[in-house]
C-alpha cells in the first residue's frame, strides 16, 4: 500500500514540476513579447518625432535658403551662402533619419559591435545578480525610518 502511495505522489510531483516549468516558460515568452512590443512602440515614436522635426526644420531651411540667397545676390557677398553648408548637412541627416536607411545602418552597426566588440558592452561590476540587488536593498532598508519600512 505504501509503495503505491509513494509512486502516485512521485507522479504528482513530476506533473507539478512539468506544469511549473511550462508556466514559467509561458511567462518568459510573454515578457519577451511585451518588451519587444514596447521597443517597437518606442522606435515608432522616435521615427515619428524625426518626421515631425523634419517638417519644422525643412521649413526653416527653406526660409533660410531663400533669405540667404537673396541677401547674397543683392549685396554681392557670396559669404552669406556659408551657413547653408552646415544647415544642409543637418537637413540631410534628418531626412535620412526620418525616411532613409539610417535605422537599418544603425542596426547593422549595433550587430557588428555585439559580435566583434562584445567586451565594450560589459556593465561595471558585471551583470546584477539577485544577491547583489538584495544586498543593496537590505542596506538601504536599514537606512529608512520605521514609518517607510
UniProtKB/TrEMBL annotation:
GO-annotated cellular components: plasma membrane
The residue ranges crossing the membrane are 53-73, 79-99
InterPro entries the UniProt entry points to: Plg-R(KT)
Keyword vocabulary terms for this entry: Membrane, Transmembrane, Transmembrane helix
Q: Does the keyword Magnesium apply?
A: no
A single GO BP term for this record reads:
positive regulation of plasminogen activation
Which superkingdom heads the taxonomic lineage of this protein's source? Eukaryota
State a single Pfam family of this protein: DUF2368
Protein name as catalogued = Plasminogen receptor (KT)
Taxonomic lineage per UniProt?
Answer: Eukaryota, Metazoa, Chordata, Craniata, Vertebrata
Amino acid at each position: 500500500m505504501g509503495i503505491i502511495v509513494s509512486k502516485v505522489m512521485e507522479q504528482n510531483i513530476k506533473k507539478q514540476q512539468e506544469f511549473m516549468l511550462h508556466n514559467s516558460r509561458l511567462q518568459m515568452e510573454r515578457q519577451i513579447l511585451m518588451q519587444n512590443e514596447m521597443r517597437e512602440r518606442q522606435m515608432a515614436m522616435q521615427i515619428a518625432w524625426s518626421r515631425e522635426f523634419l517638417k519644422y526644420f525643412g521649413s526653416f531651411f527653406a526660409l533660410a535658403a531663400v533669405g540667404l540667397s537673396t541677401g547674397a545676390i543683392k549685396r554681392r557677398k557670396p559669404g552669406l551662402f556659408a551657413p547653408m553648408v552646415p544647415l544642409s548637412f543637418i537637413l540631410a541627416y534628418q531626412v535620412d533619419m526620418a525616411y532613409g536607411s539610417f535605422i537599418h545602418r544603425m542596426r547593422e552597426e549595433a550587430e557588428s559591435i555585439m559580435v566583434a566588440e562584445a567586451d565594450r558592452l560589459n556593465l561595471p561590476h558585471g551583470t546584477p545578480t539577485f544577491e547583489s540587488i538584495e544586498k543593496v536593498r537590505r542596506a538601504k532598508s536599514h537606512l529608512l525610518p520605521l514609518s517607510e519600512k
